[in-house]
């Protein structure tokens, strides 16, 4: 795909995926296994799940755009430049002169799992209004992708709902990865209620096993609990099970695809690399929802992309290419 340069118009072929929501700076400790207080230094890494997905799509040769708001500060301009450098269409990006770009401090445990401490009170991404939405960009998409962090507070919550309505009215596929971040919500119950409030608007949903446990208050390994999240009209529900791989559910078939063993350093962005790679394939050919063989092939590729992303610190710097994903798959065969 030709570079989009200065956030120019997206390619005309309608494989465009528009990601909506937050992009922020993750500060990741330079030594794993220490608390934030104990950490001596931090590596600055661009992050924010919807932006990670947009970059993952572009990195894999897909067509992607990001829609969100940044502080008119050095970090905000740095992040939008990172989108452009990664060939993500940035015409839906806005700057706010009165609010800062969000920051997150991420604690890395020894196993690569993370804990978050956020600075956004309120950050610019929370202040996007419905009137500022680039609806033309949304209507040019084949897929509209979003998370749940933009549902926490107005005005961005109203903007999110309006963007989703515009996408649905235009017949665009809606993709939802809730990305539960409990510290950002007023309470766990508010998080559960907020996340489920738009559940039935989606065509495709990806949740982690931990998120299934949180949303259903039950065991994620019990299929009955997973299927309580299914609804009539959903095309595909995916549950990611960490390095074990993933499970998939459609109205016609279900199954699981094993993951790949790698040396995990940092799991940040692994789910986003997984989602981005799957959306690249859905955008190219949405018969994947009805063809189990094609879906399994795509999920194997997505598992490889997610695994590769855990082998480096940060999300966007660790995103895979088609070549690195194919290499991992070939090595495992």
Structure description:
The chain is globular and about 50 Å long. The strands form two sheets. A nine-stranded mixed β-sheet has the order 5-4-1-8-9-10-11-12-13, with helices on both faces. Strands 3-2-6-7 form a four-stranded mixed β-sheet. The chain is of the alpha/beta class and 333 residues long. Helix 4 links the parallel strand 8 and strand 9. Helix content is 32%, strand content 22%. It has one domain (49-101, 129-332): UDP-N-acetylmuramoyl-L-alanine:D-glutamate ligase, CATH 3.40.1190. Helix 8 (270-284) runs antiparallel to helix 9 (292-309) and helix 9 packs across helix 10 (322-332). It has ten helices and 13 strands.
